[in-house]
Design brief:
Order of helices and strands: HHHHHHHHHHHHHHH
Number of strands: 0
Distance between the termini: 39 Å
CATH class of the domain at 83-286: Mainly Alpha
Radius of gyration: 23 Å
CATH topology of the domain at 83-286: MetI-like fold
Strand content: under 5%
CATH superfamily of the domain at 83-286: MetI-like
CATH architecture of the domain at 83-286: Orthogonal Bundle
Structural class: mainly alpha
Shape: elongated
Largest sheet: none
């Protein structure tokens, strides 16, 4: 009987060779390499940046790319490459922390709604529907209007306004998994609701949560860049890809490099996270994986 229960309660995801599936997907590998490279650049910024990103040099204002300044200089003579490297720190930090906050909130509320159902599910999902009625960017701008623009506030606001999709996803997974045999076996064995939810159901819902989190980082980076571009995100002189684009907009006709390189950095970063997220989805979703084998 113990052997049977062990077989029933065994997590199905533990049998998925998803790392091998991920390695066989060239686009996912490309996304992983891009994300890994950007993380290394962000962590190594003090050693990689050739200049102080906030150092003003009035003798080299709006210089085009050269050997002295590989990506040129901005209207204050600051080195664009150094600011771009340090901006990677800000963008990745905001994206990861904000999505982490959203994932914790969404997973908690979605698990409660999916596990208990009934009036708890109705209450949480109606709250989600109300929040979704407001466009996210305008909701974030409205909240920031009452707060001082700072990195911490930006991370908190993006996190607290982008958890709804994770909540819906987790709710659907819990509603599907709570009827499985391994959950029924856990109930028969006398496991508490908390143990069933966190030890039996949640580990089997990690795959879609991981995919949503990876894809969400790219969206959070885009949101932070948009807010900084509008002047209500990360404030100068702290380098951010968004406020670097603002400087480029004001000098677009005479200094093309101010807009091109931050724009490319945002494009490549978001593309990397999207490719990695899609690769994880293909590797972790058994339906997609099995259909690929049949084809």
């Amino acid at each position: 009987m113990k052997a049977i229960n062990h077989q029933i309660t065994k997590s199905p995801n533990h049998q998925i060779p998803w790392l091998g599936q991920l390695g066989n997907n060239p686009l996912a590998v490309a996304g992983l390499l891009i994300v890994g490279f950007l993380c290394i650049v962000a962590l190594s910024a003090p050693w990689l940046a050739p200049y102080d990103p906030q150092a003003i040099d009035t003798w080299h204002i709006l210089e085009s790319p050269s050997m002295a300044h590989l990506l040129g200089t901005d209207p204050l003579g600051r080195d664009c490459l150094s600011r771009l490297i340090y901006g990677a720190r800000i963008s990745l930090l905001v994206g990861i922390i904000a999505v982490g906050i959203a994932t914790v909130i969404g997973t908690t509320l979605g698990a409660l709604a999916g596990f208990y159902g009934k009036w708890i599910d109705g209450l949480i999902m109606r709250f989600v529907d109300i929040i979704l009625c407001f466009p996210t960017i305008f909701l974030i701008m409205a909240v920031i209007a009452f707060l001082e623009p700072s990195i911490l506030n930006i991370m908190a606001v993006i996190g607290f306004t982008s958890w709804m999709g994770v909540a819906r996803l987790v709710r659907a997974e819990f509603m599907s998994l709570r009827q499985r045999d391994f959950v029924l076996a856990a109930r028969i064995s006398g496991a508490s609701n908390a143990r069933i939810a966190f030890s039996h159901i949640l580990p089997n819902a990690v795959a879609p949560i991981l995919v949503a989190t990876t894809l969400g980082v790219g969206g959070a980076i885009l949101t932070e860049s948009a807010l900084s571009f509008l002047g209500i995100g990360v404030q100068p002189p702290t380098p951010s890809w968004g406020n670097m684009l603002t400087e480029g907009k004001d000098n677009l006709e005479i200094a093309w490099w101010l807009s091109m390189f931050p724009g490319l950095a945002i494009l490549v970063t978001v593309l990397g996270y999207n490719l990695l997220g899609e690769g994880l989805r293909d590797a972790l979703d058994p339906r997609i994986r099995d259909s690929g084998k049949n084809n």
